[in-house]
Amino acid sequence: MGTKLKLALEQKNLKFLGFDLVAMSVNDILANGGEPLFFLDYISTSKIKDDIFLDLIKSINQACSEAGCSLVGGETAEMPGIYKNEEFDIAGFAVGAVERKNKIGKEKVKKNSLILGLESSGFHSNGFSLIRKIISEKKISLNSKAPFKSDFKLLGEDLIQPTKIYVKTLLPLIKKKKICAISHITGGGIYENLERIIPEGMNALIDFKKFVIPERFIWLKKIANISRREMLKTFNCGIGLIIIIHETNKKDVLNF
Fold it and tell me: What is the mean pLDDT of residues 4-21?
């Protein structure tokens, strides 16, 4: 789950955590051309409290529904010697399936293929150690008004908005063989994750003039004086998933 959990706990807002937990697994399965089938969770805490536990399970269940998979079980452990007060941690994993002949990846990428970016819903689940450090050093209140355009009133709410689940958007296109490869933009940002689906001997050419970075990332860059390269290596910067398609499929994909 990572340190995004810390920000959620500080705000006592756990309603999105299940989406972050599930999304990181099912989006990775999708990146291989797979269909998520079921999910299991693990929750460890100092003491099980009904309100926290029920919020988490409800959130995980909603996320599984969004991903089209089943929540089939898990484990919950009380460990007061490890966690203090209301501290807890959550983890999980998903199982998916894909026919070997339908698996996607860089081996299906050809010269003159097109690279398309799919919008993220925010910071998703990466870079939060840096975000928390900046908030602490700059003495920024999570309860202050979001200093950029946002669907949320408060800064803290915007920072922890849920990771986007792309399964229902892309799985039909994968099954129709319209997608060659997918890169889930997580830790390492665009630089490191896109590289994984570029065949040896080829380069990715990205038109940055058409790449409009959302205001929340610009705000963070400015207040902490983060270099452009570091931003692109740490955060998704507005692109949560990248797909590579053959040019002949451009119309079908864009009109889907």
Answer: 91
- pLDDT tens for residues 188-203? 999 899 999 999 999 9
Type of residue found at 96: G
CB-CB contact of 249 with 239 (8 Å): no
Dihedral in degrees, nearest 10, Cα atoms 147, 150, 153, 155: -50
Which of these, 239, 221, 242, 241, lies nearest to 231 by C-alpha position? 221
Residue 149 CA to residue 162 CA, distance in Å, equals 17
User: Beta-carbon neighbour count of residue 86 at 10 Å?
Assistant: 12
- Judge contact between 30 and 167, C-beta under 8 A: yes
- E-assigned strand segments in 104-168: 114-119
In degrees and rounded to multiples of 5, residue 116 shows phi and psi of -120, 135
* Closest to 12 measured CA to CA, from 63, 87, 64: 87
Model confidence pLDDT, tens digit, residues 150-185: 999 999 999 999 999 999 999 999 999 999 999 999
pTM above 0.90, yes or no: yes
Instruction: Find tokens 């983060």 and name the residue.
Output: 226
CA angle 151, 185, 173 (to 5 degrees): 90
* Strand-by-strand arrangement of the 181-184 sheet: 114-119, 239-245, 181-184
CA distances from 151 to 102, 127, 188 (A): 38, 21, 26
CB 191 within 8 A of CB 242: no
The tokens for 245 are: 């398609």
Q: Is the pLDDT of residue 62 over 70?
A: yes
Least confident of 4-18, 123-137, 232-246: 4-18
